[in-house]
Amino acid sequence: MSAIAEDVLRIAAADKSRGYWSTVFRRLARDPVSVACAVILLAIVLGAILAPWLGLANPIQGSAIRRLRPIGTAGYPLGTDDLGRDMLARLIYGGRLSLVLGLLPVGLAFVIGTSLGVIAGYVGGLLNQIIMRIMDVFYAFPSVLLAIGISGALTGGMLNSIISLTIVFIPPIVRVAESVTTGVRNLDFVDAARASGAGPMTIMRVHVLGNVLGPIFVYATGLISVCMILAAGLSFLGLGTKPPEPEWGLMLNQLRTAIYVNPWVAALPGAMIFIVSICFNLLSDGMRSAMDVRS
Amino acid sequence: MSAADLIAPVADVGGPQQPLLAVRGLSKHFAVRGGFLGGGGVVRAVDDVSLSVGKGEVLGIVGESGCGKSTTARLIIGLIEPDAGEILFDGEPVSDRMSLRELRRRVQMVFQDSYSSLNPRLTIEDTIAFGPTVHGVAPAEARARAHDLLRKVGLDPALFAPRYPHELSGGQRQRVNIARALALSPRLVLLDEAVSALDKSVEAQVLNLLIDLKTELGLTYVFISHDLNVVRFISDRVVVMYLGEVVEEAPVETLWSDTRHPYTRALLAAMPSLDPSRRTEQAPITGDPPSPINPPSGCRFHTRCPFAEPLCSDRRPALLPTGNDGHAAACHMVDPASGHSRAGKQTKEHTHV
Question: Which of A88, A237, A52 is nearest to A149 (CA)?
């Protein structure tokens, strides 16, 4: 190696080699679309968490004389719904349930699905067949139908819709995890790890998980928007949350009747679902390219 | 037992005369799934291979792609389970699982692809320290050992320890792979095309490094390559494989000066020469090796051999000694009693070089 190259390396090393995830984060921070999406999502999440302290109107207390005010009415910046409740307050409070219903099932499915998929992919053979064929059974039903079916069988409610959505999202995550793991387990460094005498659990933890988590995580982020829409659908059908609790899907369902009277107000919950899901989608796209460190 | 003893070099058992590694009758057949209507077959990747590696020796294994060189290495280190055969390490048979774990302290491997054999998510020092930690060495101590080894393979630990594989060049990555293989203080290192993917100048540096390390640490190498020049440079003894079988085995200079098997002769003749007067004008053998799924009967080389006779497709020649220097070849022409018309008449006029 030439002296100059030696120097360059030395300077680069002095710049303290960064960890993988901090590199990804830095690259993500340089992408304006991802940053914008992250800011919007952060605002919605913070709004949902801090809702009681934002000085908003009561989201459940209605008023018969102020029903269906249009957007921009004094005192009601986003109008009122068919029971005279403040839409701004309901949308911000609604984020609490909607976000939980969108994130929690995907989070649970991510943990369960990744474990199953990595084991199936790494161990292979009969165990792989058993796990993957069981997942195929779930694929026989369209996801919406499956969610409605399980949720209906479990008699609705918030907790049961989370359970049913988790079950809906496990099979696709297992599939992705299994295929990524199968690709990684055939690489030489896994063989080298086996040759050093490490057991399967150690190899999966140290060598496999770090290399498969990224792609699975990106895929799961993309599912959040689907999950929010499905959760909204369950609420819309009366299987999720129950009135008067504010939840975007449920609100959309109730305002449906007012669509000819005040279409803009009626569309607001749908707009929220749209904004949040598109932000998660764009953010996961940004993550995908930021994680490709070699490019 | 202190932590450092956990990866201390394993003591010699059988004395200098005992081969460090003896492999007898090793076979591995992979089942091939047939088409839609069944059928299928078995790939005889490695078929009844026997070889031994003396202490401090470099055994070269050469042959075309797909002749079972790499499979042999993976069988020796236990990454693939053999269908038949016996592996003795310093006289002790490797059998049950516990013993396999012990074997991995003594035998390590360097892979051809320097990139895919390093975990892209681990720093260089974590990669090297992984083996020792698995064997119970404390993380701090394992890291110190990793730095030590980096220095040994000619990489400055301050510079390279915290880096990731994609930040290194091919030669540097292969040095890291060598350091990783040495982390458990093995006695035998299997080098599976370890320098084949490097460009020539880097290849020479890595080869010299391997020779230095061998002297310094008292290592034994099995050097697998398709590059005959490199094998001739580094090996003491060479085994030639064809379609999963050993066809010839000899001390390195004997193999070049007194080639017995027609396949070895063709291989050597296929080496490009720097001398224009020795330019290769005719291909020594033509065509691809036959499929190992249904290998030819008798001598597997008879389909491409210029001296093939009916006898060659009937009977499989045994690996017979041709001299007393450990030279052996599996060819009917070597065995005077075989009935081949040229049996026993082999002269040096056929040999190239």
Answer: A237
Q: Note the pLDDT of residue A11.
A: 46
pLDDT interval class at A5 (50, 70, 90): low
Q: Using one digit for the tens of pLDDT, what is the confidence trace for A171-188?
A: 999 999 999 999 998 899
Whole-Å CA distances, B251 to A295, B15, B192, B232, B330? 48, 22, 20, 10, 16
Query: Which amino acid appears at position A202 of this protein?
Result: T
Q: Are strands B21-32 and B41-53 parallel, antiparallel or unpaired?
A: antiparallel
φ and ψ at B238, to 5 degrees? Answer: -130, 140
Distance from CA of B26 to the nearest CA of A (A): 19
Spell out, as residue ranges, where chain B has pLDDT lower than 70: 1-6, 33-40, 96-98, 278-284, 344-353
Domain ranges of chain A: 34-291
CB contact under 8 A, A202 and B164: no
**3-class DSSP assignment, residue A86:** strand
Q: How far is B119 from chain A (nearest CA, A)?
A: 6
C-alpha B331/C-alpha B333 separation (Å) is: 5
How many angstroms separate the CA atoms of A212 and B239, rounded? 40
| Look-up of token digits 């005719």 | B282
Interface mutation target, options B112, B134, B202, chain A, most CBs of A under 10 Å: B134
Quick one: fold of A34-291? MetI-like fold (1.10.3720)
CA-to-CA distance for A186 and B164, rounded, in angstroms? 20
Judged by a CB distance cut-off of 8 A, whether residue B130 touches chain A is yes
Q: Which of A151, A169, A148 is nearest to A160 (CA)?
A: A151
pLDDT for residue B308: 82
Architecture of domain B18-235: 3-Layer(aba) Sandwich (3.40)
Distance, in Å, from the CA atom of A209 to the CA atom of A115, rounded to the nearest integer, reads 9
CA–CA separation, B105 vs B131, rounded Å? 9
Predicted confidence at residue A1, as pLDDT, reads 44
pLDDT digits (tens, 9 = 90+) for B154-183: 999 999 988 888 889 889 999 999 999 999
Q: Across A221-225, A252-256, A261-265, B203-207, which has the greatest mean pLDDT?
A: B203-207
Cβ separation B111–A194 shorter than 8 A: no
Residue A71 has a CB neighbour count (10 Å cut-off) of: 15
Candidate from B79, B134, B135 with C-beta closest to A191: B79
Domain ranges of chain B: 18-235, 239-273+282-350
Separation CA B217–CA B223 (nearest Å): 17
Report d(CA B58, CA B67) in Å as an integer: 20
Share of chain B above pLDDT 70, in %: 90
Tell me whether residues A17 and B113 touch, CB distance under 8 A: no
C-alpha span between B140 and B326 (Å, rounded): 47
